Amino acid sequence: EPEVTQTPSHQVTQMGQEVILRCVPISNHLYFYWYRQILGQKVEFLVSFYNNEISEKSEIFDDQFSVERPDGSNFTLKIRSTKLEDSAMYFCASYLYEQYFGPGTRLTVT
Amino acid sequence: KQEVTQIPAALSVPEGENLVLNCSFTDSAIYNLQWFRQDPGKGLTSLLLIQSSQREQTSGRLNASLDKSSGRSTLYIAASQPGDSATYLCAVFHRNSGGYQKVTFGIGTKLQVIP
Question: End-to-end distance of chain B based on CA atoms, in angstroms?
């Protein structure tokens, strides 16, 4: 059964550094998403991507964040200058008739 | 603006009990509703998807219902087991002002099933 994969599973970075989180969504899906979940809190929507452009973004998704689908398979989330409060689980998801989530990347900013 | 509420926030039941989790949404113009399960430190696993034209979906001991007009969905778990302990989230799929899909999640109900 096809699945959404994410790498790395855990990323530790220093404040101010750039990080790129990677996702391989299910290939024939139409929408791709990034969510984050701060420890113990709710799942928060960041951004959705359709037809190679952003279709919706939340207030959290400010200029520090960007998304790309560089090669038609990978889907990346870049955080330009990480802050302590960016520490969270980041989930990628893709959608055709229902939404499928990846296992997440735990980002720790020190 | 679509808002999704899940009640209760937490629930603790003895093993074997049947239980109902509730999800309500403010804008009935949805086209799908999906229930997920999340184990601690893990991703979200899809349980059931209900399309807007459907009233309910069943999978094993799980039954999800949808009443679009009243903005409510319930997830019924029969004969609960300790392995059902997890956080259950509902997500509604609707459209943004540009006609693109938008997903709004509830905060979840944390279920504990006591052996």
Answer: 41
